[in-house]
Amino acid sequence: MTEFLELETQDAVRMPWNVLPGSKSEAAQCVIPVSAIYTPLKPFPNTPTLPYAPLRCRNCRSVLNPFSIVDFSSTKIWICCFCLQRNHFPPSYQSISETNMPAELFPQYTTIEYESPSEKASLTNPVFLFVIDTCVIEEEIGYLKSSLLQVVGTLPENCLIGLITFGTYVHVHELGFGQIPKVYVFKGSKEVSKDQVLEQMGFFANKLKPTTGVIAGVRDGLSQESMSRFLLPASECEFTLNSILEELQRDPWPVPADYRAARCTGTALSVASHLLGICVPGSGARIMAFLGGPSTEGPGAIVSKILSEPIRSHKDLDKDSAPLYHKAVKFYEGISKQLVHQGHVLDVFACALEQVGLAEIKVACEKTGGLVVLAESFGHSVFKDSLKQVFQSGGNDLGLSSNGIFEINCSKDIKVQGVIGPCASLEKKGPLCSEVVVGQGNTTAWKMCGLDKTSTFCLIFEVAKKESPDAIAQSANPQFYFQFLTYYQHPSGQMRLRVTTLSRRWVAGPGSVQVDLY
């Protein structure tokens, strides 16, 4: 067990087998599959961050690592341990030698990070879009306002803030208009498209809207002024945001005694995802939804407004007798695909004694790596402490990172079956993909919109070797390799690449399996 713990401490990887059966037939006899549990952003105080771009193999695109074969002579070449391609070092590496190696070749740095100067220059600010349910009693509104006001005061000055409130209608607040409160209202009973958001919120009020292509950000003709009306740095909008939150009241539309409140959760989340897709596509942003009950209005509704009709139970879901369930799940799957494409995260803070529809919404949280907090009230310590923890800085912070892409390279005799965890497939198919799919499979690259320093993924592999184990015993190199590449936006706003390269070995025959594994 000590060996497993030492390896995990070095690379944040734990494998059930540290040696593998030498053929596909023998691997099939293993009860536990060939797999690895990996925590991509686990903190390593001694891991250096290199201030330059990684050196990649020109054939398989794997990164230079301690297992590469290096010729330090005048030719200055390195051989990729995955595809055996010979690569020349660039001029910046010409001074390397056996006594003057770059950090990525040090044996102890099998996990290392890169932060190239070009990435440093493209610093992006974190974005938080608050989506607040106002169909709750005044007491709950008070608790929520108190918590949010405390959080707003602790936000970094450079982070961008937006605010949406919803009940019967969706209200998008224009924080950049400080003279009087100004909102854009969308009807909660209808699905809202991205074009409608662009038109009704005046993004092209003074200029011609492009007739073709996807409209997203400054590069597609949107002015910075039009976008900064809704997403402003915390230092600029703190007074306006505090004023709006202090005056926040319960949804004013009357609710008959035998009816539930008209709560358009689905429409509000749809408008929020459209807004972020228009203003900050491809940069780390989080929709933080504060829900106080079930959605009863518009797309994504999970129950009727008539109070005599009960909300679906676990038994109804098991029997497939929840009439609105599949339609709501399909709607939230569409939102999750949009958020994954944009690189954004959905967090849900559900504080109510009744259900809020998490069974339907969870697909969007899971695919984007969002946080889910459940409590019985916005005044409960579980909610208040969890919200503070999200924005906490220092040694006890969550290390929230965003907009990540995860890739796997491995030796030719290993194939990737899939990944289990909060991610979405990027459908990057190739020879390393196994025909057997487990979790998010049939790809070697995944989108991880939101991840923190404890986010962990289970990677499932398949042994593709067909020769007998005896051939392994006779081979000169019984080693095989994995490389995990995690490209992500650091909490500081900088883009980084973490590279973890592992070496394991094949087992030569059933006789050694017993000796080596136990």
Quick overview of this protein structure:
Residues 54-93 form the Zinc finger Sec23/Sec24-type domain. The protein is α+β, with helices and mostly antiparallel strands.
Primary descriptors:
8-stranded mixed sheet, alpha+beta, 14 helices, 518 residues, 23 strands, zinc
Task: Provide structural commentary.
Helix content is 26%, strand content 24%. By secondary structure, the protein is α+β, with helices and mostly antiparallel strands. Helix 4 runs parallel beside helix 12 (381-391) and helix 8 packs parallel to helix 10. It is globular. Residues 511-518 have low confidence and may be disordered. InterPro entries: Beta-sandwich_Sec23_24, Sec23, Sec23/24_trunk_dom, vWFA_dom_sf, Znf_Sec23_Sec24, Znf_Sec23_Sec24_sf. It is found in: Cytoplasmic vesicle, COPII-coated vesicle membrane; Endoplasmic reticulum membrane. One of its GO terms (cellular component) is ER to Golgi transport vesicle membrane. Residues 54-93 form the Zinc finger Sec23/Sec24-type domain.
